[in-house]
Amino acid sequence: MCGIVGAVSERNVVPILLEGLQRLEYRGYDSAGLVVGHGGQLERVRSIGRVADLASKCANTSGLIGIAHTRWATHGVPSERNAHPHISKNHVAVVHNGIIENYEILRSRLDAEGYEFTSDTDTEVIAHLINSHYARGNSLLSATQAALAELVGAYAIGVIASDNPDHMICARRGSPLLLGIGIEEHFIASDVSALLPVTRRFVHLEEGDVVEIGRSGYQIYDAESSRVEREIQISELSNESVQLGAYRHYMQKEIHEQPQALADTLESVCNSQSLVPGIFGAEAAQTFAETGSILILACGTSYHAGLVARYWLEEIAGIRCTVEVASEYRYRVSVAEPKTLVVVVSQSGETADTQAALNHAKKNGHDHTLAICNVAESALVRLCKLRMLTRAGPEIGVASTKAFTTQLAALFMLTLVMSKQRGRLSAEQEQKHLHELRHLPAAVQKVLDLEPQIAKLAEQFAGKHHALFLGRGLHYPIALEGALKLKEISYIHAEAYPAGELKHGPLALVDKDMPVISVAPNDALLEKLKSNLQEVRARGGELYVFADAHTHISEADGIHIMQMPEHAGYLSPILHTIPLQLLAYYVALQKGTDVDKPRNLAKSVTVE
Ligand code: M6R
């Protein structure tokens, strides 16, 4: 989704803006632009394509104040005229992330007032609207506040004006934006990573905040326009943690970071002798004691994590659990079960649909809420009473990898805590699970060692157009996740089915050109799965089986086996995810796609 960077400084801000945009590239975008103020003028440079293309056009551009943007098209095709910043009458420039829902009404009104529109975007409305208030003698701050009061929708914006070289205004509601604090310079950005080369001191803005930012200071106003103080936080992220290092792609780096990410996420339980609800927040013990069922809301990969958790929560903790795609739940009329704990799962904590689903749940009367999230300062974490932070570190590749396995680890901890609280976990079982969790990072490392074999296997997929993924039980969501990974980065059409469903339709698709990838853990459903695999083989389907030790599935004509280590019990879905991530990665390499920034996709989906 769109990325924003802004700076007001005593030095030329163009290199800061360009570096910031480059660091936000992972969010997904199709065009980029910046505007700087100097000598009472605004100078704008825009470009379709990569930030590098924009940079090459900026050789002679400089200024002490500026705002910049990477655009992910919503209103209007990707083109230079639709790229941000948008400027009203050479006077007011705006960058925007979000969607303005009432832009058509506002556009007609501003049209009638003589404002000329040069793009198809909703954002241009904001520039003209602020300018119309500014032209009436308001300060840039008041003009922005007045304009924002007229907007319906979501926004994070940065604003500068040609006749105000010393102040930048920013505001957020529904889309992420933070303030970076420097010495005699200040910055804005969509996330911390954009500003790490210039500062580690940040203010995370609240919903409805509007900020007037100068070189030596800033004032924050809340949604009611009252002056407020917000805490300055020091980011723990190091600059290196968002660098590629020796890896070819962020996705590859992030796949390999999983042992460490899991060890970090599990630190609180692995260093202790017993499981306590407190790891989810101070009020967790009380809330969990009152919980009668669980509703998990999430999107994409995070939704798949929720689907795995349903098996765990019902089987181990004996608690009823439903899992819903957030974009569906938010518009569905549902019957709220009293005593339900609503769990939102998200890497970014900014996904618009998940936020809206959470708000919808709250409106439905659910007030027990828990966020499982990778970004401590994100909207979802702030909106929930309870929290468990996954400690995957920054995930830059659009395809979610380490965020997923750490979400699973967090959801497994939730299962164990719930189970213990409900008297379903003996002391002996608790110790056994803790032992397995401590061993998990090493077990994941062992699976990562299969990388060369999987790279070789991937060569057989490059020419394929379709693929079918099969799993059963706990591993059906892993098949879904494997298919999602393959389709999003290699553009091969991939579908996942619970293996028992094959004969109810998808078997018709199976022939020699349809690779069928199966997750084959050595669990209670193994024999059933083997029969399903026979059904595929009997129709000439080519099978690729990720099989645990002792499954006794042998390599044969049309059956390729990738030998996994010992079966890992309830934690097996985490291990079986790894080879599917690697397979997708190496197939994408074969196909030469843009692995970290697949076409049409964005990392943080901050619009509906
Ligand atoms: O940040 P979130 O976890 O809320 O994001 C949800 C999905 O957009 C995300 O998981 C998406 O499906 C990934 N690109 C899949 O790899």
What are the main properties of this structure?
single chain, 608 residues, alpha/beta, Glutamine Phosphoribosylpyrophosphate, subunit 1, domain 1, Rossmann fold, eight-stranded antiparallel beta sheet, 18 helices, globular, binds 5-amino-5-deoxy-1-O-phosphono-D-mannitol
Compose a concise summary of this entry.
By secondary structure, the chain is an alpha/beta fold. The chain is built from 18 helices and 25 strands.
Show the helix and strand layout.
Blueprint: E1 3-8, H1 14-24, E2 31-38, E3 41-48, H2 51-57, E4 65-71, E5 86-88, E6 92-100, H3 103-112, H4 123-134, H5 140-149, E7 153-161, E8 164-173, E9 178-181, E10 186-189, E11 201-204, E12 210-213, E13 218-221, E14 227-228, E15 233-234, H6 250-256, H7 258-270, H8 284-290, E16 293-298, H9 300-315, E17 320-325, H10 326-329, E18 340-346, H11 352-363, E19 368-373, H12 379-383, E20 386-389, H13 402-421, H14 427-448, H15 451-458, E21 466-471, H16 476-490, E22 493-498, E23 515-520, H17 526-538, E24 542-547, E25 559-563, H18 572-591
Parallel strand pairs: 16-17, 16-18, 18-19, 19-20, 21-22, 21-23, 23-24, 24-25
Antiparallel strand pairs: 1-4, 1-10, 2-3, 2-4, 5-6, 6-7, 7-8, 8-12, 9-10, 9-11, 11-15, 12-13, 13-14
Bound molecules: 5-amino-5-deoxy-1-O-phosphono-D-mannitol.
